[in-house]
Design goal:
With about 325 residues, this protein is of the alpha+beta class. The chain is built from seven helices and 21 strands. Helix content is about 20%, strand content about 35%.
């Protein structure tokens, strides 16, 4: 492992010297600097590895990663990892398992929380500060790449901060693949500064929900509130069933439709902006989480009856569900 760390750090230094988009001075400027970072990193990985967990929903089949951030078992993960799930199985790097209850999610920022139901104490990583991150800062990405694997621990990947964007996302050049979603981005002290969200246009530009975004929504997430619009994560399931709407809040006992995508199943069925979805096939949809949970019972191409409130009128519309990937392609 030590040899691999040295090679990775040497690679970073060479890349930093040649990258045009990094404005900060590379952290490692000499072999001694590199050795110092190596020693620091080895200790950091030993400390945070036990808190880097895999999450799996038996109901939806979705899986991803997460990180425990206190001894009571509170987990930070990505919103798209837990969408449609109420319970998840938490798998530790050593194979131990625990049960987790999904709390809240902000889909716009792709942030979510899960609570381990069994009593701790649990291994955890401290929360850091993403406000002062600069382009070129070295970071560590961990996650259960490709899903939980009992023959290896979560791979460690090095990278640098390369950009900041809207909704308090940050970008790095840490390579991510499926299974990494929801995993932690650490600073070199082992503090959580972000959660893996999606793959960018290339391996040198991957997106993370910043810890500052979590802090802004902390109370709502912990209380179980679910809100925001669905994004287009490249790590998300393109075959998942969707209506083709954006929702930003609950209202009058249902889910408020803030936008209907052009050519989507919802638009073809006659759903409009400002409609309130009250039920699907007779099952109430009081909030976004319940709506997602109901949709996991169906497949693209299925016909469902959507009961909506439009002004004071109650209307039932028949919608043929579409595939997420196809709906998102029409948005571009």
């Amino acid at each position: 492992m030590t040899r691999h760390i040295i090679i990775s750090l040497l690679t970073i230094c060479l890349l930093a010297a040649n990258a045009h988009y990094v404005t900060a001075t590379p952290t490692a400027e000499s072999l001694n600097d590199l050795k110092d970072i190596q020693a620091r990193t080895v200790q950091t990985v030993k400390k945070v590895l036990p808190a880097t967990v895999s999450l799996f929903s038996a109901k939806t089949g979705a899986s991803g990663s997460g990180v425990i951030i206190n001894k009571d078992g509170l987990i930070l993960t990505a919103g798209h990892v837990i969408r449609g799930a109420e319970e998840v199985t938490v798998v530790f790097p050593d194979g131990k398992q625990a049960n987790g209850t999904v709390l809240g999610a902000n889909y716009t920022r792709d942030t979510a929380m899960v609570q381990i139901t069994e009593k701790g104490p649990w291994p955890f990583a401290e929360i850091g500060n993403s406000k002062d991150l600069k382009s070129g800062d070295l970071v560590l990405a961990l996650g259960h790449a490709g899903g939980y694997d009992p023959v290896r621990t979560p791979p460690v990947r090095f990278g640098r901060i390369i950009a900041r964007s809207i909704h308090k996302f940050i970008s790095s050049d840490c390579a991510l693949i499926g299974g990494d979603s929801g995993g932690p981005l650490y600073d070199l002290d082992g503090k959580v500064i972000g959660i893996h969200s999606s793959i960018g246009t290339s391996l040198s530009a991957n997106n993370h929900a910043s810890i500052e975004g979590f802090r802004d929504d902390w109370d709502r997430l912990k209380s179980g509130d679910t809100w925001g619009r669905l994004g287009g994560s490249a790590l998300d399931d393109p075959d998942a069933p969707v209506l083709g709407i954006q929702t930003m809040k609950t209202a009058r006992g249902g889910v408020f439709v803030s936008h209907v995508f052009e050519g989507s199943p919802a638009q073809r069925a006659g759903i409009r902006e400002r409609d309130i979805i009250r039920s699907i096939n007779g099952r109430r949809t009081p909030d976004l989480r319940r709506l997602h949970l109901i949709l996991t019972n169906y497949s693209p191409g299925n016909d469902i009856k959507v009961r909506i409130l439009r002004g004071e009128d109650v209307i039932t519309l028949e919608v043929k569900l579409g595939k997420r990937g196809e709906v998102l392609r029409r948005r571009r």
